[in-house]
Amino acid sequence: MLAAYPVHDAGGLSTSLSAAAWVDLVEPSAAECADFEKTSGLRVPAKEELSEIAATSRLHCEKDALYMTAPLIFAGNNEPWIFTPTGFVLSKKVLLTVRYAHPDGFAPALRELDGQVQPMLAYVRILEQMVGHLADLLETTSLDLDDASHVIFRASGRWRLSRETKMLRRLMIRTGRTSERMTRLHYTLVCLDRMTKFTADRAHEWIGPDNSSRLQSVSSDIASLVQFTEALVSRVQLLQDAATGIINIDQNDVMKVLTIASVAGIPPVLVVGIYGMNFKYMPEYDWSFGYPYALAMIVLTTLVPLLWFKWKDWI
């Protein structure tokens, strides 16, 4: 699909591709790419080119135009965050965006431009909207980690062991998914920051002071979001370590109880084994209090290990 947004002037809105200041190609066909290339003289990046990871492939100049790509994030409701490789071709006369999904940031940028479409202004506005969208995702993720922290550090120990272990395991999966999201978001922010600095460096002669100032603001916002993302990644690691530690402590408590029970059960079993032997001459068989004596020995040999464990403060 090809959408062309022309410059708004006194003559009104133009519908000609040659008069467009911003051309947005969404899953473009070969014919649409050919039409743009013929009209503008600029090359449309291929889909495979948008997925390149080398910095020289992501950022370079051709015919006084800046060719840039970035893996933007598509975050649907309760769906995995996926990268949507997006290409930007910026020149003095036109901005070309090439994408194969609908990441947030493009539609709000168009609404805020309100017909005042200029290549550099549209490009800066898209960056601002993308950074703002990523900031919203970070805020949502931070609140999610607040809930996870409450469960781990305040709510643990209120349920039975089996229920608590299942809850903590689900929580570890959730925080692991959050860690993966933060990694993707961090990579997107780094790529956007490189684009911002590349544009300010290579197009400083014609972007204008206002756009230059806005690019600096975008770069500053990205720097703060990168720091916040790194803090969230560290927090995710802390929560996962805490959940793992609590699960291990609970399992160790179970093993401790079983160990104490087995140790405390050995002496009475020994007593029962001795008096259960069928030898002909055993003095205790002739005692009138032999049976109570054996029961008392069983109880005593059970209590002594338990009292010793209690004295050692092991239980």
Describe the SSE topology.
Elements: E1 2-6, E2 20-26, H1 30-40, H2 47-50, H3 55-58, E3 59-62, E4 65-74, E5 82-90, E6 95-99, H4 106-113, H5 119-153, H6 161-202, H7 209-275, H8 290-311
Parallel strand pairs: 2-6
Antiparallel strand pairs: 1-2, 3-4, 4-5, 5-6
Helix pairs in contact: 4-5, 5-6, 5-7, 6-7, 7-8
What does the model show?
With 315 residues, the chain is of the alpha+beta class. It folds into two domains: 2-251, no CATH class; 253-311, Methane Monooxygenase Hydroxylase, Chain G, domain 1 (Up-down Bundle), CATH 1.20.58.340. It contains eight helices and six strands. The chain has helices at residues 30-40, 47-50, 55-58, 106-113, 119-153, 161-202, 209-275, 290-311, and strands spanning 2-6, 20-26, 59-62, 65-74, 82-90, 95-99. Strands 1-2-6-5-4-3 form a six-stranded mixed sheet, sandwiched between helices. The radius of gyration is 35 Å and the shape is rod-shaped. The chain starts with a strand and ends with a helix. The model is unreliable at 9-15 (pLDDT under 50).
Please tag this protein with its features.
about 325 residues, alpha+beta, Methane Monooxygenase Hydroxylase, Chain G, domain 1, 2 domains, about 60% helix
**Major beta-sheet overview:** 6 strands, mixed
> Approximately how much helix is present in the residues?
55-70%
Anisotropy-based shape: rod-shaped
H and E order: EEHHHEEEEHHHHH
Question: Could you provide a short overview of the structure?
Answer:
It is built from 8 helices and 6 strands.
